[in-house]
Amino acid sequence: MDQAELQRSGAIAELPSMEQLWMPFTANRQFKAAPRLLVSAQGMYYRAHDGRQILDGTAGLWCVNAGHGRPEISAAIAHQAQEMDYAPPFQMGHPVQFEAANLLAEIAPADLKKVFFTNSGSESVDSALKIALAYHRARGDGTRTVFIGRERGYHGVGFGGISVGGMVANRKVFRGSLLPNVDHLPHTYSAEHQAFTRGEPAWGAHLADDLERIVALHDASNIAAVIVEPVAGSTGVLVPPKGYLERLRSICDKYGILLIFDEVITGYGRLGTPFAAQYFNVTPDIITTAKAVNNAAVPLGAVFVRNGIYDTVVNGSPDGAVEFFHGYTYSGHPLAMAAAVATQQIYTREKLLTRVRDEGIGQYWQEALHALSDARHVKDLRNIGLIGGIELDSRAGAVGRRAFEAFVGCYARGVLVRYTGDTIALSPPLIIERGQIDQIMSTIRDVLRTIA
Question: Which of 19, 264, 291, 362 has the lowest tally of Cβ within 10 angstroms?
Answer without folding.
Answer: 19
